[in-house]
Please model this.
Amino acid sequence: MGKIIDHFGNSLANLTPTEKQVLYYIDQHLNEAKNLSLTEIAKVNNVSTTTVVRMSHKLGLEGFSELKYRLKSTDEEIEKVDTNPIESYKQGFVQAFETIQLHELDRLSDRINQANRIIVVGVGLSKMMAEYFSKLLMQTNKQTHYTYESHMIDLLPNMVKSDDLVFFISTSGETKTLIQAAEKLSYMVADTAAITNSSDSTLGRMVNTNLSMTVGKVKFAGYDITARSTLMLLIDLLFESYLKKSMEG
Model:
């Protein structure tokens, strides 16, 4: 199987045979499919455009436009040569915002509201994001704890209770320390979530919910300058959604 089937593998059971045919075509002809329109994808598979749109919805996407963006973002790493960084960042953010799953945002804000305690975990550059998120929640008198030390992260399975919600903050979603902790918690009753820059990451697959923006990797002169600020935007959006939920209650 290719990367597209691996990415949407959990949704395969929800697809009809015709919808699976379209997805398998895309998986096997990714480079070509990236540049095809909705009508062209439907025509080459001898199906209606409605079938393609319906398939996109069953994959958990807003529609074909988001599917198209996901295809173009797959394994894409951009070498930054643009002399106008403002325009390139603006374009990247607009595209990233289109990939946010609103139902996941809504569901996570409900779970924050219902949880007795929130535990936020982040290491490296994401440590600051974890602290920021935890302090936002503390302002609302939500019982919150954040950790970044490896030995404390190792002890998480002993600390977490059934009514806690554990958030892992990670740009790539591939940080080994966090993956190992999430894997241990997956064998428990613990409720877990991640905020990442990748909709298809190892960490995202380990937790119950992965809130993410799909952000293309960007390099300049050999340095990884992929935007981390998108994590802050997701945290701000989630916090605002949680505030509204808590006030409604």
User: Anything to note?
Assistant: The beta strands are 77-79, 117-122, 144-147, 164-170, 191-196, 209-212, 217-220, 223-224.
